């Protein structure tokens, strides 16, 4: 081993804490990259495997002449199978008496369908010999405790029908129990799916034939899915078809895709933050080492060492810590990815999880750590090679000049002269190694971005829930009726004890069209002066329901390319298309609906009658008693408590708290490691002057207070841009998740900014403690004789 | 009056030390020993040193590198405790003091001047002087300005160390040391980093301070400096090998090396 390598190894062991902190940062960055990216790939692979095994439909076409549409689809190249079925949303009553609006989906009684099969989890598949035997989707089965051998009731338009549960199943269509793209977060107990014999489905829906076509593509067909989707949709429309839902837009798949997209976002954000922090730390530590070694470097250069030997010597430190961190990180990432995949898969009921070790992730992880370490070490290494031998031999380390900006400010403020010298020591300290101060601030910024993005997401999600349930939806409950609403029935509901007000509401499934673009949603009809729903506009204002035209969700502005006043088509379930005007846009967090007055809805779809009633309760009303009273009213077949969904959302928030706590821990760790390294370098560099002050009789505690004040000043200065950049990063991060399914506003509470900054300052205080303890142990006799710049 | 078993000096009950000639002693070392490391790595930096420095005396500690002169200065200055023996300074025995006690002793009694000045580069000359005075609670702004004037740098008060010459920096360091009005000024190679002219300027300041009554100890390997001292203590291998007295010390301007 060369002597230079011996020096390298001994240098690594000198002040090991600084280099260990870099290894930890690289390890965390690489581990979280591996965990996030592989979890994303594992889950995506798991979904694709399930979709393939259970033949998840590539395209679902509703309405029209389903037999003709299916026949045409089957004949088209790229289509492997097409099947017809009956689907209907109907009231259901669970064994505990709870009611909901669920969905029945028809399946062939004798065998699994060609498209959209189900995995039987418990019990048995449908049997032609049991025409009222049904399969309950896992989610409703879990919520309502439905088991094989049990029963469930379904409203068939005239009466409740009792059906026997043969088994529980998992379906690729309902991996996530989303009712529609407008309702991707149904509260447990507010939505459920029953798979029933096709014949029974038609009886319940009150139709004579199927109303939906499901199409499954070949591998080659999936290669040009967009073209095939368009051709099949156009063909279906020629046969009176209505909504067409592609696999990508299918509510469950779209929701899960959005959700796991978070992993891929984190797979970028984590390595970026942690490896940047590692880079900052490597740079700071090596810059200091090069400054310390100037005489040695000069000696080596004077002895004939080539520049590239010197560069390689210092570059090796960055490569070594990068490699050590990335090897540990890759190993940790593989373990974490498997765990995250299994936990997530179990949580959503993915029947089979796939956990793979990907060579590409391993190689990328190793490369990230190595590149980060090497890049950060490059600048100090090159500067080391540029040290002029003669200057280095003289040992003249450049001194700080005239005190910089702070000194100039001081001169312009005569009153500042009266401030104690200790104050100036604190204020001017950060300007002495200004670049290092900037890097320390960069560490603070990185930590705050990590903390604020996670905490900001929590705040924004809470604000989103509040916006939806406190500001927009004003009703306490929604009642589904089993027969058309009349004045007497509405009056009776309004007069129910505990009810303050009741309003009728109508729901019409439509496809909004503009040119060749379309979007399937629901037109909600409400009284012109509704008090149950507020219409908040994208500009932050509020408006009323227009007498003419429709208000549509803001997401459609870009999706359909329409603006206020544009004409749009509303394709109805019966195949007719009516045209109307975009009266304005509404900014709603959950789902993208269209709104119009009941009169306008009746004009478009005369057959659509008010089918639900929105009610508000008296203040302090006994909610359970009111629910019982309303559910007992004639014609009321389902009751949905608005508070239930809010409660569900609040429960999701509890999971978010765990996420934020983990992120806070990571942010704290990031801040600690960067600040530990930079602050300990600062203290090491000031050893002589601090020792001189100690020799002059300045007490340790007093000196520690001065050093602490200076360090915290730098951290506080870094917190300002950190909070601004963190706010911007949160907006960008949330923006990536915003779609027609959900729209987030970045709303971070002022207290969150304050607590985040305080958290980082507290971490900085802890990070400098080891260095301050060194103050007590410093060897005064040696340090006061050391030559410094 | 408490006797220390030493016929030459006495620690009085009022805390002062009576020297051999009845004059008060500023520093008294008896059997002072300093050992670093243990076993085979043991280094005897000082071996049973006895020394008395009288108040107002200018003493030069002379010796080659490794002779123990800086270790002796560190013991007197309370930077390190002795391994054995007694160090009586500032009217008390400091050899048994803990870290806090030694800090208080240094604050109240000693001013240090080091070879490489050790100024805070981000503070002006005056602020460097004020800093120590403020942090030790001894002296104020006025003291600092007077100290700087005493070393002839009143006009350079607003300059940063990088804007001062080496000699000026060392004079700022001296001003910093005397701003808290110490009884004892300990200088470790104060001219070691300076050329002859600049070094003379620094010695001149030290001599002036001594004439004002301050006890000054200077550690150097430069034998020429011994000419300005009342007494010269020569050291070798951790022992005092010779003490010489100069009846008529030279002035700083007469020194040459």
TrEMBL record, chain A:
One of its GO terms (cellular component) is plasma membrane. The keyword Iron does not apply. InterPro entries: ABC3_permease_C, Membrane_comp_ABC_pdt. The chain crosses the membrane at residues 20-40, 266-286, 311-337, 357-379, 438-458, 655-683, 703-728, 748-767. Keywords: Cell membrane, Membrane, Transmembrane, Transmembrane helix. PANTHER family: INNER MEMBRANE PROTEIN, MEMBRANE COMPONENT OF PREDICTED ABC SUPERFAMILY METABOLITE UPTAKE TRANSPORTER. The keyword Chloroplast does not apply. Its main location: membrane. Residues 269-389, 662-767 form the ABC3 transporter permease C-terminal domain. It is a multi-pass membrane protein. This is ABC transporter permease. It is found in: Cell membrane. It comes from the Bacteria.
From TrEMBL, chain B:
GO terms for molecular function: ATP binding; ATP hydrolysis activity; transmembrane transporter activity. GO terms for cellular component: membrane protein complex; plasma membrane. Keywords: ATP-binding, Nucleotide-binding, Transport. Residues 27-255 form the ABC transporter domain. This is ABC transporter ATP-binding protein. The lineage of its organism: Bacteria, Bacillati, Actinomycetota, Actinomycetes, Streptosporangiales.
């Amino acid at each position: 081993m060369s002597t230079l390598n011996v020096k390298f190894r001994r240098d690594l062991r000198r002040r090991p804490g600084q280099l260990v902190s870099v290894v930890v940062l690289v390890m965390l960055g690489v581990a979280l990259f591996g965990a996030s990216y592989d979890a994303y790939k594992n889950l995506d692979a798991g979904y694709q495997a399930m979709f393939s095994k259970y033949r998840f439909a590539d395209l679902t076409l509703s309405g029209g002449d389903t037999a003709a549409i299916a026949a045409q689809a089957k004949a088209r190249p790229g289509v492997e199978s097409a099947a017809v079925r009956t689907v209907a949303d109907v009231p259901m009553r669970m064994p505990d008496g709870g009611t909901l609006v669920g969905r029945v989906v028809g399946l062939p009684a004798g065998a699994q369908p060609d498209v959209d099969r189900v995995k039987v989890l418990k019990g048995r598949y449908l049997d032609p010999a049991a025409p009222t035997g049904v399969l309950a989707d896992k989610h409703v089965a879990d919520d309502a405790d439905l088991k094989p051998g049990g029963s469930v009731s379904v409203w068939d338009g005239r009466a409740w029908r009792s059906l026997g549960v043969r088994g529980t199943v998992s379906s690729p269509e309902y991996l996530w129990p989303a009712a529609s793209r407008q309702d991707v977060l149904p509260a447990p107990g507010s939505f459920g799916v029953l798979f029933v014999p096709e014949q029974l489905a038609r009886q319940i829906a009150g139709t004579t034939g199927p109303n939906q076509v499901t199409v499954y593509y070949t591998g080659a067909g999936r290669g040009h899915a967009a073209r095939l989707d368009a051709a099949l949709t156009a063909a279906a429309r020629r046969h009176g078809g209505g909504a067409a839902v592609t696999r990508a837009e299918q509510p469950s798949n779209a929701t899960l895709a959005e959700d796991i997209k978070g992993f891929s976002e984190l797979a970028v954000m984590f390595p970026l933050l942690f490896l940047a922090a590692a880079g900052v730390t490597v740079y700071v530590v090596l810059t200091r080492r090069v400054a310390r070694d100037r005489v040695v470097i000069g000696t080596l250069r004077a002895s004939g060492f080539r520049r590239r030997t010197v560069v390689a010597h210092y570059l090796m430190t960055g490569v070594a810590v990068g490699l050590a961190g990335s090897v540990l990180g890759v190993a940790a990432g593989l373990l974490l990815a498997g765990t995250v995949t299994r936990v997530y898969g179990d949580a959503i009921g993915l029947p089979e999880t796939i956990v793979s070790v990907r060579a590409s992730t391993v190689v990328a992880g190793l490369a990230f750590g190595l590149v980060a370490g090497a890049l950060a070490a490059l600048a100090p290494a090159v500067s080391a090679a540029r040290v002029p031998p003669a200057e280095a031999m003289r040992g003249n380390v450049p001194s700080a000049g005239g005190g910089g900006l702070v000194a100039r400010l001081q001169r312009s403020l005569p009153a500042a002269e009266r401030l104690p010298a200790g104050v100036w020591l604190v204020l001017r300290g950060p300007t002495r190694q200004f670049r290092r101060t900037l890097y320390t601030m960069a560490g603070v910024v990185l930590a705050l971005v990590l903390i604020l993005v996670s905490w900001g997401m929590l705040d924004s999600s809470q604000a989103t829930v509040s916006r939806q349930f406190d500001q927009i939806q004003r009703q306490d409950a929604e009642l589904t009726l089993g027969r058309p609403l009349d004045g007497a029935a509405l009056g009776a509901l309004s007069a129910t004890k505990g009810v303050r007000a009741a309003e009728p509401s109508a729901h019409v499934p439509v496809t909004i069209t503009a040119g060749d673009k379309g979007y399937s949603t629901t037109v909600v009809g409400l009284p012109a002066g509704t008090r149950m729903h507020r219409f908040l506009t994208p500009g932050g204002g509020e408006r009323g329901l227009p007498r003419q035209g429709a208000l549509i969700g803001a997401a459609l502005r870009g999706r359909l390319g329409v603006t206020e006043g544009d004409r749009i088509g509303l394709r109805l379930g019966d195949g007719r298309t009516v045209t109307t005007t975009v009266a304005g846009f509404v900014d709603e967090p959950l789902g993208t609906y269209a709104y119009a007055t009941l009169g306008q809805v009746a004009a478009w779809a005369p057959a659509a009658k008010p089918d639900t009633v929105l009610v508000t309760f008296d203040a302090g009303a006994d909610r359970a008693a009111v629910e019982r009273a309303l559910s007992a009213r004639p014609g009321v077949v389902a009751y949905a408590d608005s508070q239930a969904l809010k409660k569900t959302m609040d429960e999701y928030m509890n999971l978010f708290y765990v996420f934020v706590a983990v992120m806070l821990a990571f942010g704290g760790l990031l801040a600690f490691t960067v600040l530990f390294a930079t602050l300990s370098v600062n203290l090491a560099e000031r050893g002589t002057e601090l020792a001189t002050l100690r020799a002059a009789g300045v007490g340790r505690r007093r000196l520690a207070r001065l050093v602490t004040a200076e360090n915290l000043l730098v951290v506080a200065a870094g917190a300002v841009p950190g909070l601004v950049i963190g706010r911007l990063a949160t907006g960008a991060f949330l923006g990536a998740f915003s779609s027609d399914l959900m729209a987030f506003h970045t709303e971070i509470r002022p207290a969150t900014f304050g607590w985040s900054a305080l958290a980082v300052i507290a971490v900085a205080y802890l990070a400098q403690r080891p260095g301050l303890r060194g103050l007590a142990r410093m060897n005064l006799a040696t340090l006061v004789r050391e030559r410094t710049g | 009056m408490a006797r220390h078993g030493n016929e030459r000096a006495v620690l009085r009950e009022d805390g002062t030390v009576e020297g051999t000639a009845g004059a008060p002693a500023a520093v008294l070392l008896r059997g002072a020993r300093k050992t670093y490391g243990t076993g085979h790595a043991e280094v005897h930096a000082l071996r049973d040193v006895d020394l008395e420095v009288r108040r107002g005396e200018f003493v030069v500690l002379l010796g080659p590198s490794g002779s123990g002169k800086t270790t002796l200065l560190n013991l007197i200055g309370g930077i390190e405790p002795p391994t054995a023996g007694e160090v009586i300074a500032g009217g008390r025995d400091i050899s048994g003091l803990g870290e806090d006690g030694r800090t208080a002793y240094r604050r109240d009694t000693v001013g240090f001047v080091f070879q490489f000045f050790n100024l805070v580069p981000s503070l002006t000359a005056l602020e460097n002087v004020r800093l120590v005075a403020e942090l030790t609670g001894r002296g104020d702004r006025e003291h600092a300005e007077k100290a700087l004037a005493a070393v002839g740098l009143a006009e350079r008060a607003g300059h940063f160390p990088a804007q001062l010459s080496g000699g000026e920096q060392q004079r700022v360091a001296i001003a910093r040391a005397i701003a808290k009005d110490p009884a004892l000024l300990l200088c470790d190679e104060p001219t070691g980093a300076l050329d002859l002219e600049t070094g003379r300027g620094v010695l001149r300041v030290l001599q002036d301070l001594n004439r004002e009554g301050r006890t000054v100890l200077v550690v150097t390997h430069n034998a020429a400096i011994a000419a300005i001292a009342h007494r010269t203590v020569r050291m070798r291998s951790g022992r005092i090998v010779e003490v010489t007295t100069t009846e008529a010390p030279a002035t700083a301007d007469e020194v040459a090396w």
